[in-house]
UniProtKB/TrEMBL annotation:
Gene3D superfamilies in the record: MFS general substrate transporter like domains
Name under which the protein is recorded: MFS transporter
Transmembrane segments: 42-62, 74-91, 161-180, 211-231, 237-262, 274-293, 299-321, 342-361, 367-388
Organism per entry: Pseudothauera rhizosphaerae
Lineage, broadest ranks: Bacteria, Pseudomonadati, Pseudomonadota, Betaproteobacteria, Rhodocyclales
Domain of life: Bacteria
Amino acid sequence: MILSLAITLAIQVLATMAALTVPVLAPAAAAGTGIPATLVGVFIALVYGAAMASSLASGSLVARYGAIRVSQACLLLCGGGLALAAGGTAWSMAASALLIGCGYGPVTPASSHILARSTPAHRMGITFSLKQTGVPLGGGLAGLVVPSLVLLWQWQGAALAVGAACALMAAIAQGVRHGFDADRNPRHRVSPAGVLRPLGLVFAHRDIRDLALCTFFLSAMQLCLTTYLVTYLTDEYAAPLVTAGLVLALAQAAGVGGRLLWGYVADRWLAPNLVLSLLAFGMAAAAMATALFDPDWPLVAVVLVSMLFGATAIGWNGVYLARVAQLAPAGQAGQLTGGTLFFTYFGVVLGPPAFAALVSATGSFAAGYAGIGAVLLAVGAALLRAVAKGRA
């Protein structure tokens, strides 16, 4: 179990770092390419749009080629996407986003396939949560390492260096492929029609379907926190940029701790659906408290609310993925995870633009956070109703 967790965590870290490298180096790239750094939102939308499609194909690909082989291909796609980004044109950036998204989408379903086979049932929550810390860790590495690489080798060299790291990780994974891919079926058919099969499987399992639909809103909340908090703090709380960045970093750190804590709670004390329901209520409360930020608030209060926001809005993923793996029939964890991630990534694609539209209509980030907080109250109630009906 330790080896499977270590390899899937490392792959997740590198794939996430690759997905966030271009947003981090965007200001430096803008100076040389003339492409506005503000278009980074379009880049992220393309990444997750491609990830939606590729996550659906992941189940069939894992069944035929094995989870490690698919993960290696994902890392190479991410590396190739970063090489394209170094081209510095609008078209190469768009192609880069699509290629990285195609690589990012199957990473989680492939790792779920591995972990579902190697993890005891009573450790699912904490194991999947540990693996999912790779997302904030990858984001943190992008924020810490990429700017230094830009100083050393310019922005193109930074993109190529992270791409090379992805290729190196793909080579390292070859050493464990024989054991982890022993269940692959080379005769398994991969067809366009089979790409939609994970969606059919999701809707055939009511509990998994309901979880998938809820994660559309949970992921939207997560991205609205990480995308807009710094701007909100500088514009409406009047915090200096460095202070706002530090608050976001603390929220991200709380998200890492939250992923581990909620996974442990779901394994030891509370049913996973109940944990997810409480987390939805928690992030709704944090969003509404965030909407009340005022320049008269002490900074320590803003930090505490933001860390609660991070612990809940960033911390739910491991419990959710473990629950999907628990509910999935034997051998179908990867396909069902891919199907549910279609809805999760859809929330990532649509959530921030919807939030931005609400802010634009009201002229207030506070209204945006209050609005999405109200939506999460309804999601928490829906999950709690499922628990009350004995469906957890």
